[in-house]
Amino acid sequence: MNKIFWPVLVALTLSACGTTGGTKATVEDRTGGKTAAATTGQGTETTGVGGSGVTGSAMGGQYAGDPRKDPASPLSKRSVYFDFDSFVVKDEYRPMLEAHAGYLMSKRDAHVILQGNADERGSREYNLALGQKRAEAVRKALSVLGVSDAQMEAISFGEEKPRNEGHDEAAYAENRRTDVVYSDEK
Amino acid sequence: MSVSPLRSVLLFSLFCLALLGAPFTARAAMEIQVIGGAANKIAVAMVPFRAAPGQPVPALTQIAGDDLNRSGQFRLVDAGGAQQPVMPAQVDYGVWRGKGADALVVGQVAALPGGRLEVRFFLLDVLKQTQLAAYSYTITPGQWRATAHQIADVVYAKLTGIPGAFSTRIAYVQKQGRRYELKVADADGQNPRTVMRSSESVISPKFSPDGARIAYVSFEDRKPVVYVQSLRDGHRRKLAAYKGSNSAPAWAPDGRKLAVVLTRDGASQIYLVNADGSGLARLTRGGNIDTEPVFSPDGKTLYFTSDRGGSPQIYRMAVSGGEAKRVTFNGSYNVSPAISPDGRYLTYINRDEGRFSVALLELASGQTRLLTDTARDESPSFAPNGQVVLYATVQGGQGILGTASLDGKTHARLSESGVDAREPVWGP
């Protein structure tokens, strides 16, 4: 009972909340120590979640809600982990990526952002490029499976948004990762 | 602040005017630790300047002395004792020679009408018993620190023959909890001012060559985007926000172009773009990582990090295009290049057995040396006079900023307690 009910609740809650808190950036004037001028409206953004976020299509009578959130579906899996210094998408992620490719090809207005990440060791800019390489590897895998380039964007957070903020090998492994994020559910 | 060399020391009889409220307030923050040091340092005694009547002794000599100390080229001689001259005529050179001083700095502050102050100082050669420099500064009470840095610049230039860089600025990113602030501070880390704050990360700040603008990478748009912001009025705009990631800005020496790294065509590749965002042109063409570009001082060559050889190494290529040549060979991880203002040295981060340290390469000879013995160093950049390298490292789990002399023997720490500082860059 729980298993069926919980995702529906999540979907309903998501559709009810129209916005997520956007990121904020403030620009300040630093001329002569005065605190005048300063704030521009730029950088403040609000991302809508309504609309396509909830489709309510049923999956084999088991699940009524967004198929991407069905815990039983490989679509609910969103992270591809990489070995140290590696950019190869391992075979174990094939079912997951095939599921996402199928979804994207069936819904041409859907769009994914492939967010690459790196562990914290070394240069931030080089780690940004390493994360990009991991995002690009997943983008290419989806492309090979038939997903249109227009439906994908590969970007990198480098070491800037670690999932695990620890400083050991386990944390690093968790942060060498690409996340598949749908634009309508950021 | 107006500055004029003094013609005569006799002008000092004018001093003793009304005292005006301008107490020196020491700002909290970064402290300096000089660890180790080279032989053959120039020994300077700095006598605390006499304050204007009724006012506290200004920290001028403390601030200027710290500046000189951090350079690694100076040793401060204890200036205590009965001899406390404020002008050359009062100097008993024998006393200072006895203390081992090569040079002596004396001075005093006078209050001027309208709340302004006059700072006069003299730099004296103790061995030759001659005056090397004499300056007068008319300042407002808010200009203590700037004045001290100018005094340090004069002393440094007169005694080393190299221009000082104490009146320049640095930028860095401070992280507190989930808040990121891009800061611009004096070269000693003091007087920090926030020029941008965000709830997402900010990396890779780079001053324009004239110091009027700053480029940086912000993640506020849920992806890396390169911004250019005026340091005069805070106005900013996106320089590069193409599909994919946008990062690693580097100003050309003329300030008209920047190199940036984009992934719009797949791999991280270097592009040139005009400072107004127009005229985008791809420079490197490969499927590997090319990033962290930096221009040579003559603007003709780009140094950058690439993994085209299997491990990240530093390469160089002509800005006009053509083949890239590998520059670093020692070790399997050499990244984050920066070029000295005279083009002779490359500083970068070298990884050796899991330790990330600041390295220095003399380009002509190929000789390298490590400048630090810390293990998590990042983001090295040269002082505008090329004599010191600024970098970030981690100490006690916290990001701190440090400087290292080119001989690697003097390390100073610019650190504010309780904050995480990273991504430093030295500007004009």
Structure, explained:
The complex is a heterodimer of chains A (186) and B (428). With 186 residues, chain A is an alpha+beta fold. Chain A folds into two domains: 1-67, no CATH class; 73-186, OmpA-like domain (60s Ribosomal Protein L30, Chain: A, 2-Layer Sandwich). Chain A contains four helices and nine strands; from the N terminus they run αββββββαβαβαβ. Chain A has helices spanning 2-16, 94-106, 124-144, 169-175; strands at 19-20, 25-27, 47-48, 58-59, 63-64, 79-81, 112-117, 152-158, 177-182. In chain A, the strands form three sheets. Chain A has a four-stranded mixed β-sheet. Chain A has a two-stranded antiparallel sheet with strand order 1-3. In chain A, helix 3 (124-144) links the parallel strand 7 (112-117) and strand 8. In chain A, helix 2 (94-106) crosses helix 3. The longest helix of chain A has 21 residues, at 124-144. The model of chain A is unreliable at 1-23 and 29-61 (pLDDT under 50). Chain B is mainly β. Chain B folds into two domains: 2-160, 3-Layer(aba) Sandwich (Rossmann fold), CATH 3.40.50.10070; 169-426, 6 Propeller (Neuraminidase). Chain B is 8% helix and 43% strand. Chain B has three helices and 30 strands. Chain B has a six-stranded mixed β-sheet with strand order 1-6-5-4-2-3, with helices on one face. In chain B, strand 14 and strand 15 (257-262) form a beta hairpin. Chain B is globular, with a radius of gyration of 23 Å. The chains are: A alpha+beta (186), B mainly beta (428). Chains A and B meet through strand 2, helix 3 and strand 8 of A and strand 9 of B. Strand 2 (25-27) of chain A pairs antiparallel with strand 9 of chain B.
Arithmetic mean of pLDDT of chain B:
90
The domain count of chain B comes to 2
Unreliable segments of 5+ consecutive residues of chain A:
1-23, 29-61
Beta strands of chain B, count: 30
Using the coordinates above, name the CATH class of the largest domain in chain B.
Mainly Beta
Overall, the morphology of chain A is globular
Element pattern of chain A in H and E:
HEEEEEEHEHEHE
Structural class of chain A: alpha+beta
